[in-house]
Amino acid sequence: MQFGDLAIELQLHFGVLEAPRTMVEREMQELLWRYPERFLNEPLKQLALEASSAVGRADLVFEDRHARLLIIEVKHGRLPRGAIDQLLDYFGMMKQKFPNRPVEMMVIANSNSRNVALHVKAAISNAER
User: Fold this and answer.
1) What pLDDT score does 101 carry?
2) What pTM was computed for the model?
3) Measured in whole angstroms, how far is the alpha carbon of residue 57 from the centre of its chain?
4) How confident is the model at residue 21 (pLDDT cuts 50, 70, 90)?
5) CATH topology of domain 24-127
6) How do residues 65-100 score in pLDDT, each as one tens digit?
7) What CA–CA distances, in Å, run from 37 to 40, 42, 72?
8) Residue 6 has what pLDDT?
């Protein structure tokens, strides 16, 4: 999802009439936290906002209808390459806490590049093994 689209969705949903501005990362997190079904098209149960651990803070953690955990890392602007490693750290954190539960990962950013997208696919494939 691109957050330009999210800004348009927000305007449509709340009837905002003013010109859109770029959202800050915290606003993006809060919208996803409050309205996961609206923006991710799936009913999700809220588990943790800014879940802390020794490796850092996972932005959002949800549970889906199949009891899978979903970790979402939100980045404002261009997706930095290190975001994938950060997400994999959170994946490990959740697997330690919940070893028998499946864990899904998602990164949401305003923009990304093809190289980062390929890195994400490779990292996720390796993590699932």
Assistant:
1) 94
2) 0.69
3) 12
4) low
5) Trna Endonuclease; Chain: A, domain 1 (3.40.1350)
6) 999 999 998 887 777 778 888 888 889 988 988 999
7) 5, 5, 14
8) 52
The overall average pLDDT reported for the chain is 75
Handedness of CA 116, 117, 122, 126 (dihedral sign): positive
The helix-helix angle for 82-97 and 114-127 (nearest 10°) equals 20
Rounded to the nearest angstrom, the gap between the alpha carbon of residue 100 and the centroid of all alpha carbons in its chain is: 22
CA angle, 78 as apex, 52 and 10 as ends, to 5°? 80
How far is 127 from 123, CA to CA, in rounded Å?
Answer: 6
71 by Cβ neighbours in 10 Å (0-12 / 13-18 / 19+) ranks as buried
- Angle at which helices 3-14 and 25-34 pack, to 10 degrees? 60
Distance CA 21, CA 89 (A): 32
